[in-house]
Amino acid sequence: AKEELRGSYRFFEPEMDLQLRARRQLQMDMRDALKRDEFCLYYQPQAETLTGVISGFEALVRWEHPKRGLISPSDFVPEAEENGFIVELGEFVLRTACKEAASWAKPLAISVNLSPVQFQHGDLVETVRQVLRETGLDPERLELEITESVLIDDISRALDILKQLKGLGVLVAMDDFGTGYSSLAYLQAFPFDRIKIDRSFIAALHENKHSEAIIRAIVGLGRGLDVPVTAEGVETQAQQAFLAELDCAEIQGYLIGKPQPIGLLAPHLGGDEKK
Ligand code: C2E
Ligand code: CA
Ligand code: CA
Ligand code: CA
Fold first, then answer.
1. Which residues pair with 62 in a beta bridge?
2. EAL domain: from which residue to which, for each copy (predicted)?
3. H-helix segments, the chain
């Protein structure tokens, strides 16, 4: 059996080598792409559940590849996290989002995703402080979205950084709530300013009896903690109606709007400026 194993290992070796080479190539490509300004942000609206009035936007990174076209973050963010490039990319996203939001006619909220890797490397607090100073954005308009994976590795260090971030006056949201292992313990450990229900629960809403109970429980949890809840991935009016009935504060999803480049946001941003 040992011989077979060794044999099969040898068989896969060239393929692994190829994979490694492809990954190194992607890593170099990403660094060049940032220099060539190929990364850009799309913005997805977030709205009050009852009225549909837009309260802010989430910045979502895209790679406008000259040959491959628009590449979505699921195709490069994991790789960028593995090779550390996400620290640089994350800083670009933060700076770009804050700069653009600071120029909007309405002082709407801007959400930016942070990777766990940004907590482990670089000086995240100093970066955020500097970007706020540089762009002049009101810190209360900036909401940093983290997943519980930020808290898994070194919780005391992560909590310390989160507290320093809050000290800058920015808000912190727990993203993808309900998909992890100890989300409740983290809610106890840190005063989050928002809970975002993962879109898998919303997607299952009218097909899976349990998801209704889970969403109800999360919204109730938010009410008990006095933390506003946002439901992600809302695509239908039926989902919106259910969430409105629960008094879930905000919704985000294709029903309100898909992520769009900055140029297309004008109608949301300057709507009643003319009056
Ligand atoms: P996320 O933070 O949970 O972002 C929400 C994702 O759900 C976005 O995918 C958005 O386009 C998608 N979405 C929103 N509404 C709907 C809907 O109604 N239906 C469906 N089917 N999908 C919807 P996107 O832009 O592809 O981003 C995927 C993930 O990549 C994000 O999930 C986030 O984890 C990560 N990501 C995106 N931008 C950044 C970034 O700048 N930094 C970091 N660290 N991660 C990012
Ligand atoms: Ca997010
Ligand atoms: Ca999310
Ligand atoms: Ca996600």
1. 40
2. 23-273
3. 2-35, 77-83, 86-102, 116-120, 124-135, 149-152, 155-167, 183-189, 199-203, 209-225, 237-246, 266-269
User: Does the CB atom of residue 60 touch ligand 1 within 6 A?
Assistant: yes
Per-residue tens of pLDDT for the chain, all 275 residues: 444 454 445 555 667 777 888 888 888 889 999 999 999 999 999 999 999 999 999 999 999 999 889 999 999 999 999 999 999 999 999 999 999 999 999 999 999 999 999 999 879 999 999 999 999 999 999 999 999 999 988 899 999 999 999 999 999 999 999 998 878 999 999 999 999 999 999 999 988 889 999 999 999 999 999 999 999 999 999 999 999 999 999 999 999 999 999 888 878 886 544 33
Joined together, the tokens standing for residue 77 give 């963010």
Q: Give the Cα separation of 250 and 171 in Å (integer).
A: 16
Q: Residues with beta carbon < 5 A to ion ligand 3?
A: 175-176, 232
- The single-letter code of the amino acid at 258 is K
Question: What are the residues facing 197 on neighbouring strands?
Answer: 177, 231
How far apart are alpha carbons 260 and 57 in whole angstroms? 10
* Contact in structure between 252 and 58 (CB atoms under 8 Å): yes
Q: Report the complex ipTM.
A: 0.97
pTM for this entry: 0.92
Q: Which of 41, 70, 77 to mutate to test the pocket of ligand 1 (most atoms within 8 A of CB)?
A: 77
C-alpha to C-alpha distances, 156 to 74, 152, 160, 161, 162, nearest whole angstrom:
29, 10, 6, 9, 10
Letter for the amino acid at 13?
Answer: E
